[in-house]
Amino acid sequence: MILFAATSFVVGLSGAIVPGPMLTVTISDSMKKGFKAGPMVVSGHIIAEIILIVLIFAGLGWLIGSSTASFIIGTLGGIMLILMGYNITRSSQPVSEVSDYGEVKRYGPVIKGFMTSVSNPYFFIWWATVGCAFMFKGLELAGAVGVLGFIIGHWASDLGWFSTVSFLTSRGSGIMNEKHYKIIMTICGAFLIVLGVYFILSAQKII
Fold first, then answer.
1. pLDDT 10s digit of each residue in the chain, 207 long?
2. How far is CA 206 from CA 43, 191, 201, in A?
3. DSSP secondary structure string for all residues of the chain
4. Which of these, 9, 17, 7, 8, lies nearest to 161 by C-alpha position?
5. Nearest partner of 138 among 201, 52, 73, judged by Cα
6. Are 190 and 82 within 8 A, CB to CB?
């Protein structure tokens, strides 16, 4: 479970570090409200994910243990991971270019975290492919404990990254410069590509 949770942490981090709506509101709110903004934004994001996870298991419970579902989800999840990894390593968008995200800027950090999650198509695409693939893999490896390991690792990555961004932003620190950010993205992108290949080969019963 520990190894699976650690893997989920890195995969979650790979998605979290990509500039997007949540990063935007985290930086914006941290400048105004301090370090607490980061964890609060993630809290809203987690609420959205809890709802989605419940819906996934409520609607897909009959698929658990299905070899067909494992093949489809594992293959799609692997392809998505490879594409994500490639895009992350090729990304040239600097973290410094983020700005307020539309109308959500009028709400509190928790509501912003929820709204930027459910209004982002990538959020649902990720869960429909990578998220489901990991949950099925966790079930296959260790049942409910495996799913718990995935959830813990995934949420730890979100909380760790956005809390770090919030802290550095609120302190006006130059520690997280563009060079360091690019290195982190490249490493995580390469990891996603390798993991994606593993998922595809695993789904084909090759390994």
1. 677 778 888 777 777 776 667 877 887 788 778 889 999 999 999 999 999 888 887 875 555 556 776 777 778 878 877 887 787 677 655 555 554 444 455 668 899 889 888 876 677 777 877 888 888 888 888 888 888 888 999 999 999 999 998 888 777 655 556 676 677 667 767 877 887 888 788 877 765
2. 39, 20, 5
3. -HHHHHHHHHHHHHHHTS-SHHHHHHHHHHHHH-TTHHHHHHHHHHHHHHHHHHHHHHHHGGGTT-HHHHHHHHHHHHHHHHHHHHHHHH----GGG----GGGGGS-HHHHHHHHHHT-HHHHHHIIIIIHHHHHHHHHHHTHHHHHHHHHHHHHHHHHHHHHHHHHHHHT--SS-HHHHHHHHHHHHHHHHHHHHHHHHHHTT--
4. 17
5. 73
6. no
Amino acid symbol at 2? I
Query: What's the chain's length in residues?
Result: 207
